[in-house]
Amino acid sequence: MADLVPYHDRDGFIWLDGKLVPWRDAQVHLLTHALHYASAVFEGERAYGGEIFKLTEHSERLIAGGKIMDFDIPYTVAEIDQACRDTVAANNLVDCYVRPIAWRGSEQMGVSAQHSKIHLAVAAWNWGSYFPMDQRLKGIRITHAQYRRPDPACAPCKAKAAGLYMICTIEKHRAERAGYSDALMLDYRGRVAECTGANVFLIKDGVIHTPDPDCFLDGITRRTVIGLAKARGIEVVERAIMPEELGSFTECFITGTAAEVTPVSEIGGHTYKPAAITEALLNDYTALVTPSKRAAAE
User: Fold this and answer.
1) CA separation for the pair 222, 66 (Å, rounded)
2) pLDDT digits over 56-114, tens only?
3) Same structural domain for residues 282 and 160?
4) What sections of 130-251 are H helices per DSSP?
5) Within 13 A of 70's CA, how many CA atoms are on the CB side?
6) Residue 192 near residue 102, CB atoms below 8 Å
7) Is residue 298 part of a domain?
8) Domain region containing 80
9) pTM over 0.90
10) DSSP strand pairing (182-186 vs 19-22)
11) Which residues are catalytic?
């Protein structure tokens, strides 16, 4: 069941432009440029045992995303890292989701906003499994999306930019209304791309195949899982995957900060059975992100 506590009316603190402020006071004006023109970049991070996984990589990507969107975030990677840690600590959180976001403010309204102030905020809250646990353990069902990931010549696909998620929300809603958990998006060429908020991996004959992220985000979790697979000696092939190939694979899973490693049982009529490779990588990822398990392994 969805969390019914509205996000604007909660206890706690949000880090906003250099300081922690009471949650309900962290507000922006109606005429903020980002609301009208999607001039914002953000990150999705998870803390496990009080430690934010791959924190610096996320902060680096946030700054890089701002530059792609033609603005400079007025904080260093180290300062953003600390802001994220301070936000988690101020809210007395241990296992949680962390959301840094940078955006153009309200000084100018119109397509051009070169003199608008660049703001940065960090929020953190308790957030469990992205998918219902009973679905996740047996594999989620995915349908086909109608919208496609755009040509890199038409959108800043290497930034985690707010506007790029517009079609993801539409497709996620469409999938849920039809009884599915998510939707698989093709790219502008008709190749398999990603789900609405996660990268996709497909397995056959002991080899993992995953789309080449040349027009969508190369997820931090995606890269982590590829590393875990290679550490096990499992071959990973990054390539163009056509939708007509989907029926030839035996296992499938998706990855993302929110999704973590989630097995898939169906994509639009093609069925998969979570098996040895999916289970091994799910367990490896869980061990890697959990400080106590990682320390025991070391």
Assistant:
1) 21
2) 999 999 999 999 999 999 999 999 999 999 999 999 999 999 999 999 999 999 999 99
3) yes
4) 133-138, 166-177, 220-231
5) 10
6) no
7) no
8) 13-125
9) yes
10) unpaired
11) 160
